[in-house]
Amino acid sequence: MAAKALLLLVVAVGVGAGVEAAGAVEFAYDGFGGADLALDGMATVTPAGLLLLTNDTNMSKAHAFRPDPVTFRRPAGAGGAATMSSFSTTFVFAIVSEFLDLSTSGFAFLVAPSTDLSTAMPQQYLGLFNGTDNGDARNRVFAVEFDTVRNPEFADINNNHVGVDVNSLNSSAAEPAGYYDDGTGTFRNLSLISREPMQVWVDYDAATTEVTVAMAPVRSPRPKRPLLSTRIDLSKVIADTAYVGFSSASSIVLVKHYVLGWSFSLGGAAPALDYAKLPKLPRIGPKPRSKALTIALPIATTAAVLAAVAIGFLLLRRRLRYAELREDWELEFGPHRFAYKDLYDATGGFKDKRLLGAGGFGRVYKGVLPGSGTAVAVKRVSHESRQGMKEFVAEVVSIGRLRHRNLVQLLGYCRRKGELLLVYDYIPNGSLDKYLHCRDDKPVLDWAQRLHIIKGVAAGLLYMHEDWEKVVIHRDIKASNVLVDGEMNGRLGDFGLARLYDHGADPQTTHVVGTMGYLAPELVRTGKATTLSDVFAFGAFLLEVACGRRPIEEDDVDGNAAVDEDHFVLVDWVLGHWRNGSITSVVDAKLGSDYDAVEADLVLRLGLACLHPSPAARPSMRQVTQYLDGSAPLPELPATYVTFSTLAGTETYQPLFFDSWSVRRSTAAMSVATMSDIGLSGGR
Known about the structure:
Structural class: alpha+beta
Distance between the termini: 74 Å
Number of helices: 15
Helix content: 10-25%
Number of strands: 32
Oligomer: single chain
Radius of gyration: 30 Å
C-alpha cells in the first residue's frame, strides 16, 4: 500500500502531464501538441505545438484554459474555515507583430470563475472585461497583463508594461517590462513586441498575500529580484474553484500572440520547463534564396547575352519605376519606412480604380500590402522642397507612435523624388461628412450615433493635447477629417500634415493652414496654431454634426445669418436662435423630433463656447470632455457673447476678416491652403 501511495505522487512532467491528489494540482506543457485545453475565439494549437492566441484577424479575442477547474481553498477541519492556497505558474511567450515597432493590445494570464468570457471585448479590454463590467468586484478575476498599448482610460504607465489586475484593467501594480540583472542589479528593458520568446514567473503566497512577478529572456535563470511585488488578499477575489489560462485580444495591427510552454502548481513551485522540448517560433520574413539559384542565375545570364541585355533593360526600367529617395539621416527611421515597391504593388500601381480621394494637396489610394494582406490608405503628397524634410519625417515617425481608438493610425512613410507617401489605417466606412451632408448611399445618423462620434473625437483630441508625451496640434478639425469605423466610432485623421506645408513653404510668405469656417480668428491673424485654435475648430465641428450643415454655405436660408447676401454662416444662425430661446430648433431637420433635447442643447451651447473669438474664453479639451460626459456643468454663455463674424463689422476686424474671405471667393472649395479636403476622408 505504501508503494502504491508513493506511485500516486510521482509526476512525469511532459506535454500535458499533471497530478491532482488531495487538493494538489500540478501540470506542465512543454509545447501544446495533443494538449487538452479549452479554447475559444481565435485560439488554436499549431501543428508545431505552439498555442496561438490571436492571429492576423482584426478586432478578435481568444481564450485558452486548463479544462479542469482548480480548487483554490483547502478544506479545514471541523468547525474551521477553508483556507486559500498559494500557487505558482511559469510560461514562455512571444508577441510577433507584422511591424517591428507597432503592436495591438497584449495578453494576460488569468484566474477566472468561468471559461465563458463571451461578453468581454477585444482591443484594449484584452478579452477580459467590457466597458460596463470593468472594475466590478463580481468579476472575481485575477490577471497579470502584458500590454503593448498605453490606454489613458486605464491609467497605463506606458506602451510596454506588466500589470497586476484585480477585477479591472486599472492595474493594482504595474512596471515597465524588463528584469533586474543579478550581477549588477541594473534594470534591463525587455520589449514585449521584440518577437523574441521570454519567460514569466508568477507566484502568490497565501500566508503573506504577496503577489510577485518576474520575467527574463528565455533560457535565462529566474532573476532573484522580481519585476514587481504587491500585497493583494486573493482569498477575497478568487472563487473557491476557478479556471487558469490565458486571454488575448487584437485590434487593427496584425499581431500574433504565442505561448510556447506553461506549468502550474497549487501549493508549491511550478515545475521547470524543458527548453529543449519547447516548439520553435515560425520564421519571420521571406525565405533566403537557395544556393542553387544564386549560382544558376549568373551562369544563365552569362550564357545568353541577348537575354542578359533584355533583362538588364527590364531591370533598369524596374529600378526607375521603384526608385526611392533615401538619405543617411533616415537610417534611424528605418522600421517606419515602407518600400516604394510594396506601396506600388499594394495600390495596383496607383491605378485610378484604387483612388479614394483627390485634391490640391495630393491623392489617396486604397492598398493591400503584399504578404500580410493588410488594408491601408496611401497618401501621395506633392513636396518639391527639401527644406525641413528631416524635421518633418521625424515628426511623422513621432506621430506614428500615437495610440488611441479615436485616432486614425499613421503607420509610416516613403519618399520618392518630389513626393512623400504616408501610410495610414484603411477605414472602410469613409468620412463623417458623407453621412452628414447627404449622399444617397449613406444612412442618416441618429442622434445617439452623432453624440457617440462627438465624444470619441473629443477623447482623441484630449489625448493629443494633454495625455500623450508631447502636445500634438491637429490644425484642421472638420467632419471630412473624421472617419467612421465599423462600430460607428469617430476616428480623427490627417493630423500632422500642416507641418509639411510649413516646411515646404516660402519663408518670405505667410500661409494660413486650415479650412474657412473652422479657422480661429487668432490663427488668421498670426498664423500660429495652438490647442485653443483646435478647440475653435472643434466648436465648428460640434455645430456641423448637430445641425447637419457646413459652417459656411453658399445658400442662405436665414437672412440675418450671413456675412453678406451670398453666404450662410452657421455659428451666427445658431447664436440667433440661442438668443431667441429656440436653440434646439437648429438641430438637423433629417432627425425630425427623434433626438434628446437636453443633449442637443448641451452640444449646441458647447459649440458656441468653443467658438468664442477670445482664446482665453474657450474651454480646454479636458473641460469639453467633462461637459460632454456630465461630470461638470457647462457654464452659461454671457449675454454679450458675439462671434468672429459679428466682430468682422468693426473697424479693427473688418480688413482682416474680409481679406480672408476674398481668398475664399477666389476658390471653389472655400478653403485657404486646405490640405485635408483630399485626405483620408476621401471616401475611405
